[in-house]
Amino acid sequence: MSDIDGFMKDVYAREAEGQTGIGNFVAIPHGKSEFVSKNGVAIGITENEIPWESLDDHGAKVVILFAVGNDMEAAKEHLKLLSLFARKLGKDKVVAKLLNSESAEDVVEAFA
């Protein structure tokens, strides 16, 4: 990542376009950014609900942040990642495991 502030501005710009809270205490903020040289994902989990605009009017406890470049190849990879995560996060069992995770290993296991 070449400019964290620039990347964050791009994420906030995407948030302004529409909600990224998918419900069930999960949010997937993302934004295509010229400042991302390699796509990546960061997952944060908190016990306390963060106010977040979402489909079910709940805040977020699981935040999955996608860092995505803005070229065509990055966009294709981004869609694949979103699809993969959406399928997993559509399962209440996976979300329950994420909400109860205490380590990075628990998070990986939830998605396995």
Question: How would a textbook summarize the main sheet?
Answer: 5 strands, mixed
- Backbone CA Rg: 14 Å
Order of helices and strands: HEEEEEHHH
Mean pLDDT: 87
Uncertain segments are: none
What is the chains' assembly state?
A: single chain
In terms of DSSP E residues, the strand content is: 25-35%
**Percentage of residues assigned to helices:** 40-55%
Number of strands: 5
> DSSP helix count?
4
Give the N-to-C terminal Cα separation: 28 Å
Helix and strand content put the structural class at alpha/beta
Shape: globular
Description:
The chain is an alpha/beta fold and 112 residues long. It has 4 helices and 5 strands; from the N terminus they run αβββββααα. The chain has helices at residues 4-17, 72-89, 92-99, 104-111; strands at 21-23, 26-27, 30-33, 40-50, 60-69. Strands 1, 2, 3, 4 and 5 form a 5-stranded mixed sheet that branches. The longest helix has 18 residues, at 72-89. It is globular and about 35 Å long. It starts with a helix and ends with a helix.
